[in-house]
Design brief:
Two copies of one chain form a homodimer. Chain A is built from nine helices and nine strands. Chain A has helices at 3-10, 14-32, 40-47, 51-59, 73-84, 99-105, 143-150, 161-173, 200-219, and strands at 37-38, 71-72, 90-95, 115-122, 131-132, 135-139, 154-157, 178-181, 194-197.
């Protein structure tokens, strides 16, 4: 991999990283429909982004468009996938095989986004020993041993909130370097452990608040 | 409701709205542990927020702390709940009763965050007529009639990506005013329809990218 790419990856803004998978999804659909080249304004129009922003975002991948022609859609898809690291697949362990955990295990296409859940863990007798799709639910007491043996670096946390901090600490001790946290708990972990929060409640709050504002405006 | 509160709600920054449910979650836990008053620095320390930011965020709710004492925890919880509109509960319809849809139906505590899923819809014979918890899965062809009759304003979209736009349009026609979109599709809807996106893939992208960077740094 070229040094230039590595450097740009270090300073890429998070909003860009969040938009790139959306471009990727759109581009793959366009490719399926037979599109061969595509311009930044078209991408921008489809995804409601300023074309200048689209050009900036895509420049991080190192793929260049041609004037009046646009981007080669195959090159662009490959470029985004490589840039995001989606061309390699990390193994992931999930802890908390309840409804949300099961949904994530069965979520389509995670694999094409750079990771694959290879085992789930829980402590409840009701679920330990069962399967979700082709993923086994194991007892959490074998988590550390397996994570070390298989060098698993990504952990997905879908436990009840009250055990989240404890489970996250165990994950870190087992060598997990990145935790995708679905609980509302603000995790406190040793430096170097990456935490990505997906708070359902925060999203709900924004939605309900906006709806409240709108309904009130209409009433006024 | 006081005019002052309504005005401040109109201009409240989205990051504040996203943090308030996290404060709320922490405060409820502290209350359960017998805490009666709490200061902004303590809240900030627990949630890794600058205390000045905590004071700013909480000021939007209209609840005031007292010097050297802090906030009355009961007042503060009530204040945040009222401010976010969580003291009322919106009915919501969910479309797409697959794994993710089922997980959301069974997600704990949504009700205390301002909404309740009262019915789910799908088109697959495998799931129409079944139940998720105490929520019935109905055929999507009765969505419009029921949404109008029950004046449902919130729709949750957990369908496959390829039908997302079409279903969202049907939702809007049925009077849905706010859509919580879990698909990677950028929805195009009439003005006035609120869309809140929760893109699993964007979150994955950020996580995988950060992990890539870190593993590379350690290797260098």
């Amino acid at each position: 991999m070229k040094t230039q790419e590595k450097d740009s990856r270090d300073i890429v803004p998070e909003p860009t990283v969040k938009r790139l998978p959306l471009y990727l999804h759109f581009l793959k659909k366009a490719k399926e429909n037979g599109v061969l080249t595509i311009s930044a304004p078209i991408i921008g129009q489809e995804l409601e982004q300023d074309p200048t922003q689209v050009v900036k975002d895509l420049a991080y991948t190192g793929v260049k468009g041609r004037p009046r022609v646009g981007y080669n859609i195959y090159e662009l898809i490959k470029g985004i996938e490589e840039f995001l690291g989606f061309n390699q697949v990390y193994d992931a362990f999930l802890v908390g095989a309840g409804n949300l955990g099961s949904a994530l295990i069965n979520y389509p296409e995670f694999r094409s986004f750079g990771f694959k859940i290879i085992a789930a863990f829980d402590i409840s007798d009701d679920v330990v020993g069962t399967q979700r799709g082709d993923v086994n639910v194991l007892h959490f007491n074998v988590f550390k041993e397996l994570a070390s043996k298989l060098k698993v670096r990504i952990g997905i946390l879908t436990t009840p909130a009250k055990v989240a901090q404890e489970v996250a600490e165990q994950m870190a001790k087992a060598g997990i370097r990145a935790i995708w946290n679905f609980t509302p708990v603000k995790l406190k972990l040793p430096e170097g452990v990456i935490v990505q929060n997906t708070s359902m409640y925060s999203n709900v709050a924004v939605l309900v608040m906006k709806l409240n504002n709108q309904l009130k405006k209409n009433k006024d």
